[in-house]
Amino acid sequence: MQFGFIGVGLMGGPVARNLIRAGKKVLVYDLSKEAVERTLAAGSTGVAAPSLKDLAGCEIIFTSLPLPQHVHAVVLGEQGLYRLLGKGTTHIELSTIDPGSANKMRDEAAKYGIGYIQCTLGKTPAHAEKAEEPMFIGGDESLYQQHEDLFKTIGIPNFVGTIDAACAVKLISNMIGMTNLAVLAEGIRVGDAAGLDQNVLLGLLADTGARSFQMDVRGSWIAAGDFKPRFGLDLALKDVRLGLEMARAWNLNLKAMEATLERYREASEAGFGKEDCNAVYKVIAK
User: Fold this and answer.
1) Residue 238 and residue 227: Cα distance in Å, rounded?
2) What is the pLDDT along the chain (286 residues), one digit of tens a residue?
3) Can you list the domains of the chain with their CATH numbers?
4) What's the whole-model pTM score?
């Protein structure tokens, strides 16, 4: 079986390498030559695809791209990949995108006899590299079952039902996580005003209801002045924005998360977009 993989950056690269390590034949396409070379180094069954047209004969295509419009540009339209792929091909979409964009691709794929699976990735590139990435999978259940062993090769599959659900789990996770982080940053600033050492404050809060994943992971980074990008602030902004667009489409008014969106937008506009998302701390008034 011939696989195609479009987008082998931070998240897509590890998944593609897992396919290659498993001995799958994979045609790899990315605009970054370095990303392609890093992926092909995983084994001998990976080959660089000079252009998207070279993926036309693939039976399963993965996409992992930054934004919904990037995926749409690749697969839809007059020059889109769907027009090149054969009937019976499966498109597995890994990007963090909104349900509307995913459903649009599912509907368009069906016109060409192509199966569509939304497989949103739940954690970090490090988890993905070890095939320990939680995957939230939605779409036609029989199509998922057909490829279940493949998913177990590249991560930890969780079939959640609909495409809406597959998109929503990751967006909900990131909206909650980034809101927690913004509130943590504000709390640390209050501690600064009270004259509390940040590490002492974090230690005291760890045994209270204020404790969270973000406190455990990013609290010490804030205290150390460490804003190296693990999950970039602009990516966090993108995910919160997509999540809120999803919620508004479902007539939900999420006031706390709307405030979070404005906080991350402020931090991005202040020039901290390429730093870790914990750099939201920097725009909270001292």
Assistant:
1) 18
2) 999 999 999 899 999 999 999 999 999 999 999 999 999 999 999 999 999 999 999 999 999 998 889 999 999 977 889 999 989 999 999 999 999 999 999 999 999 999 999 999 988 888 999 999 999 999 999 999 999 999 999 999 999 999 999 999 999 999 999 999 999 999 999 999 999 999 999 999 999 999 999 999 999 999 999 999 999 999 999 999 999 999 999 999 999 999 999 999 999 999 999 999 999 999 998 6
3) 2-161 (3.40.50.720), 168-283 (1.10.1040.10)
4) 0.89
Tokens standing for 12? 């897509």
